[in-house]
Give the backbone structure.
Amino acid sequence: MQIKSAQFIVSNTEVEKCPSEKRPEFAFIGRSNVGKSSLINALCNQKKLAKTSSRPGKTQLINHFLINEQWYLVDLPGYGYAKVSKVQKKKFQSYIESYFRKRTQLLLTFVLLDIRHPAQPIDLEFIAWLGRHEIPFYLVFTKADKLSSNAIDSNVVAYQKVLKKDWEEIPLCFVTSATKKLGLKSITESIGDLLIDFAAAK
Ligand code: GTP
Ligand code: MG
């Protein structure tokens, strides 16, 4: 599957106001600054489709991008951003939670993790929350350009070891770099496979 066109559609805080047609969609979530918006831009081969920033907390809304005029990529705000107020954090949390719980057309979520860091409680808690709500997800390690290939391998293995304590099966893992355009094809191929399964199940 190739991404041939990508178009910003709408930003929202309310899941009820997200696009109402039942097109399949794929969401990107993870800590603030992990590289969600950059990865979406890299996948779509556009520089400024999703807004990025070196300062955490850039994406604050649920953003829908229409791909190939058929399905959506969804850029979400990051969790774990220390500088927002408690009230703001609760607000984020509640609309992100309702997005995941109510968005029945969400086929799969990509949970992004910075390849440089060992497993962080906030990510493990979020992954456990997805598990409890039976929301399917894959893991995407970001910023692979910052490490050597040996360090990449050992960090992925170490992460999977942590996950094995709680999970019988480890979800698919991708290693990516938005800057160096690494690992993008495997992500679009996995999306393509899921879209084929979705069409076949209809
Ligand atoms: P929020 O919207 O704040 O939650 O952040 P985000 O997860 O969308 O991160 P964003 O894409 O805005 O990127 C955050 C910073 O990381 C920016 O300075 C990016 O240039 C940088 N970045 C993102 N991906 C990569 C990557 O693959 N490699 C490197 N070296 N930097 C990256
Ligand atoms: Mg963002």
Q: What stands out?
A: The CA atoms of residues 10 and 158 lie 38 Å apart.
